[in-house]
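Protein 1 of 2
SEQ + STRUCT:
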Amino acid sequence: MSLSLVDVEQAEAALIEHYPRLVRLGYLVLPPTLGRNRRVLTAHALVQRALPRNQVDAPEQPVVPSPRDPDDPGYTYVRQRVLKAALAAARPRRRWQPPRQLPSVLPQVWGLRLFPRSGGADELALDQALSTLSAPARAAFVLRALEVPTDREVRQLLAAAGVDDPGAALAEAQGVRTPPGSRDACLLESVEFDACTLQARPTDLMRRRQHSRAIAAAVAAVAVCGVLIALPGDGWGPGGAAAPPYARNAAIQQALDPGELTRASATAWSHADRPGFASWPARGSRSDDQGLLRRALAVWANPGSRVQVTATPGTPSGPAAGPPQLLYAGEVDSAVIVLFHDGLRVVRYAEARSGDTSAAALDFARTDAADADTAGAVVVSRTDGNVRFLTAPWVPSAATRDLLNPTGEAQPLHQGPDGITDPVPSPAAAGTCHSWPALQLGSRLVTDLGELVPARLTTGTPTAVHDVNSPAARAAWAHTACHLQTMRSQGMRSVNIWPYAGQQLPGPAGEAQWYCTRGETWRGAGSRVLAQFQAPDLRPGTPAAMVAHASDSPACGAHDPHVLAGALWKSPAGKWFALGAGSEDVTTITATGGAHGAVQGPVMALPASAGAHVQLGARLPGGRRLATLK
């Protein structure tokens, strides 16, 4: 395993996990003259374009970083790219130079101006002070406050980003008089400088209306010309091959009829062979509203261009093949929600309470083969970073847990008569990982990963997973929860953590733990596997270091319950070691490259040097070779 190379997947994992932090860095370094709206969009663009195109060398770094101060090679590389691009955007150009294109092609926002939320007087004073600095000095100030602890490291980062005189930039930054800020956090961490937690305001409405009229007239003219050119000679007459959408099709006509909807009885789940979404009764105050149900079915069958349609990966977004099942119809927060199930998918339709469908939304999530373990709840509403769930009829009680606080008690969560919970903070919308709310549904633990159906959390070996119901299991999840950010919006069905090895470290350093976290999707493909190293002195709730990851890998799963991973580790005495750990059935581990040796058993520790490139291999009973997770 090469421990100091960065490939695209490693950089992408770092970018996704630390996206809010990278965007904050870009926003603070960009020139204030751009305006807050353009700075926000440009900061997002800088980060999204920071991935390498192939494997690249990264600066020599410790392989087991402190995840709350991420300094792993993937993060270091992406951070350097963002910093360099932000400084380049702020650099003045000479007359003979062409205009410098800020990377703002994506994302784009039309009709709205976005800017961070306003802070207090201290934040405003700091923002004004930063605007008087040069771009390198501004970068030095931000790096010193948020990223690295020493002036030497700041100078190294600035030099690598192309700053001619890092010392002068640092000296200029040190001359800024900063307000005191809060007692427990740097002012730069406040919402004033958070380009991921935004407010929206309209642009110039009068000018936009004039432009819209001109564009509408042009589009109408083009559409008429296109129809005249493309229309077949027979049109939609008896001899024509084309027909209006869904015309004279009995199955689709039934799917559009609210009177044909399937409804399970209130007690169907109690005697079902396999309780799942198919045994959920129809609930909600508007489950008999024929007009609402007809609108929802019509939009599902043929959504207009203004309907916002989303689907989890691998989920078809087409119409139902026949009458679907109604799960819920009612008012939640400021919207009217309808939930359907067609055997393969859960579909959520949302419209304004007024019945206006111009801003309707349609969301699809694949849920085939759902059972009582994975059909415990569905997201019905997301508002201001909070989420409401509709719980299954067999859920006896609901509560919330902070996964980062393994010793904390579960907090009871109120459920209405129709199964709708009170709002719960969503970790999917969190900009940082200071907490990770999870939902306790009876004995089962689930978490919101930004999709319709929350993912079930388990622990145990790949062939014997079970609920997170012990202090040891909750402690393991406390060191893993923040890494769930890399699995958001991937269609995850369940995520299991497997403590596959314990290793006594050289000297009196204590025992380290190795975890393998596997996320499996509803569609089967697209699994996500992470290997993590937990040092003995890691505080409760602090994420274990992610030392390897893979996608679409059978490792740590029921079909291939094996894993091998390694890392460089620096002992308290200052000595470096190449560590390796495999699942308990590993008979031999071999190291080559920066460390040489073969060790009998599932764990290994060999002397090495800082930044060494070490390749690991292992053998299983019967002679099968096992490579490192990648």
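Protein 2 of 2
SEQ + STRUCT:
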Amino acid sequence: MHHVLRIPPAPESPLSFPVRVRTRDGVLLAADVYLPGAPADADTSPGDTILIRLPYDKSGVYCFIPLIAEYFTRHGYRVVAQDVRGKFRSEGDALLFVNEVNDGYDTIEWITRQPWSNGRVAMWGDSYYGYTQWAAAASGHPALKAIAPRVTGTALGEPVRRDDSQRTRRVEWGVTYMYPLTQFFDNDMVAWEPDWTRRDFAEQAEDFMAQVGQRGLSYDQWYPNPVLLPRFPNGDPFAGRSVPALHTIGWWDNCAPLSWADVEQIKRHPNWDVHHYLRIEPIDHESYQLLEAEGARVMERSEQQIQDLLPRTLDPALAFFDVFVRGNGSAADVPRVSWNLAGTTGMRESATWPPAGVRSITRYATADGALVAERPRSDSTLDWTHDPADLVPSSVPDAFSYLLHLPDEAPIGERGDVLRFDSAPLAADVDLAGPATARARIGSDGPIMDFFVRLLDVAPDGTALRIARGQQQVTDATETSTVDLDLGQIGYRLQAGHRLRVHVSSSDYPEFLPQTGTGADPWTWGATRPNIQSLIVGGSDAFALTLTILEGDLP
């Protein structure tokens, strides 16, 4: 039996008045309306509205939407906070992602017909309630004047397509199939944990659903045979009318690869690219920062800590909305890219990302565990064992709050199933600003190989902070192949005396579902066996790390 905790809707805020929004198919979506001066002296005159559509309870403590709404109303905005279809007080099926375009349009249309609306709407929010902004924008409603999506992506939560014709594919997150069994199972939040020491996740999912006496619609859509229903008209979130977007990405957000994929897609749509504004912060998914004030790294933020957080998370959107919703000032005065060089304070501005003046450099791994500027002439093969019974552990218990834990990843490199490569100590500070990639010739004696690369900043005291990472799954891995691995984007200052380190491995559990070694599906599990994995260093197929440097040079 699993310990299952149901979390129903929290009481609605006394500062709001509850409404129901009828969609085109007759479903009623629950929303709270906040007006400036409410409740005692509510301003019901027509004004600008900020819409927040989320699946995490519009009234609950987790997302503290009532406090966010109060902050926005103090700046003269009306706020509509809505439970998405099938969640908490809203009717309909809890079906992930696919209803948000039409429901976003219908909600915006409803807002424009209210006496307190002047017909101008903006949207704000993180993660899934960042995704609902891209979806509403894709609906083409003309009243939507600006959006401010944070730490999200249009492909958020999409399971890996298990297509055997693919030579390479993403490594599946452990959370992918758990999300529709917890956050998006039915109206309530349903909290339960599988036994992570067992790997029969599919069986545990069936046991859970039998225990609660119902199936999960979204889970059954995805497993065992994924039916990936279209999220956007024509399958392209950026095919239609564009909307000014303040797009916030976190350097340590585990969802950042999805955000950067959207950045690249937007570049291919000139009507979107012309008013796409990028903001890159030193945060993880839960908005913890690399450099935090004393006492700020706590799992349960106090109301005062939340109040202190609001200006940092909301003021950039308010400044953006002032231009694109209220028409104050000029769009030309809004920086196209605002970014933090992690390890330093303050935000920088540039016309592009990467910023002007960067250059690429490549460093090579050696057989004796070094990172050097000159490619070794002769090649060597380094081996390690991927053992499904002894996996490389994830460095944090929750990947969404990486900077809450701020782990030292040096001990991971002491394992026998992790290859480690170190640069010499830096003679001076080096500022990294742009993409990082790795090229590797790899193979396995097992049918499928997961390949993980982590880039670390090693301080003089030996502690190691992860600053970039990438992972890829190779099918038909018994044939040695070359992979080009995206390690993401970096904006980071390496300090003098520090070293750059690379970890190479084949698991990161439980953040990523591990390979069985036999080709058996990782979620179902089954027969297992250890695999011998190989990496070539030196020679024409040398393992190569390419970084983008703004200032300084690596040894």
